[in-house]
Inverse folding.
């Protein structure tokens, strides 16, 4: 059936959702309530059908004493077809321009199912870094702490995907130009595949 055959109500549902991808390809979104508010939500990228995220890496700006630090700039997820497979595909929503990628971290026998985010609150006239680090919980309840920054506070962890995370979308502040404060990645949300329960 083509999209032209859907009723006006269907289009209204799509507009009310975060995106039509949520209607067409995902059951649920998991998120946290302490993400930064600067910037816009960027594009969604998802694992191949039937694959789930088992590992991750972070793009981190360490600052090295410079005036404007941005801390967490990006998150890559490594999707695999099984909890023990060595075959992987990398997915990534938009990342900031600063920093370098850390070593990857992997669930030993499982998929990434939930997360928590460490975020620095707005600093006023100080240096805003927004999201600094992330922690994932695997399906075997192993906890994987990212190699990110250390500013700010940890928020309450998200709900869990039933099987595992299979998509990512980041909220990024665009570069603000010389003499302006940059914060890069402010927030992230992850997608559970269609028919994958969340609790």
């Amino acid at each position: 059936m083509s999209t032209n055959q859907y009723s006006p109500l269907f289009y209204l549902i799509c507009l009310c959702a975060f995106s039509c991808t949520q209607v067409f390809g995902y059951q649920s979104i998991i998120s946290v309530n302490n993400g930064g508010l600067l910037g816009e939500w960027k594009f969604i990228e998802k694992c191949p059908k039937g694959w789930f995220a088992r590992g991750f890496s972070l793009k981190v700006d360490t600052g090295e004493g410079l005036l404007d630090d941005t801390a967490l700039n990006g998150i890559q997820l490594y999707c695999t077809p099984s909890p023990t497979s060595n075959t992987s595909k990398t997915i990534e929503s938009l990342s900031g321009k600063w920093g370098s990628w850390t070593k990857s971290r992997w669930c030993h026998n499982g998929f990434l199912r939930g997360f928590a985010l460490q975020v620095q609150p707005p600093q006023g006239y100080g240096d805003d870094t927004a999201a600094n680090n992330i922690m994932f919980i695997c399906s075997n309840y192993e906890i994987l702490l990212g190699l990110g920054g250390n500013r700010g506070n940890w928020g309450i962890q998200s709900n869990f995907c039933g099987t595992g995370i299979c998509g990512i979308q980041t909220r990024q502040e665009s570069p603000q130009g010389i003499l302006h404060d940059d914060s890069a990645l402010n927030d992230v949300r992850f997608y559970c595949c269609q028919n994958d329960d969340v609790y």
